[in-house]
Amino acid sequence: MRRRAFEARDAARNLVKRSLELRDAADVAMREAEAAIQALRETLRKPLTRIVTKHPERQIGLPSHHVLPIHLEIGDRFSD
Question: Which pTM value belongs to this model?
């Protein structure tokens, strides 16, 4: 009976340890997601840059945004 009680306590201890590890991993993932969202917001707030050709007199006035692939999500839309 004592052996079974010890095994039960050990299993419970392992489950608690594993749940704490999972909670910590989830916390890290949430912080990384928040940092990625913040970086995307900062990128979108930056002023638009102009694309310049080799000949300055023929400058193309197209705005461009710089967005990293990591900041893209399913459903994002692009346009020319």
Answer: 0.48
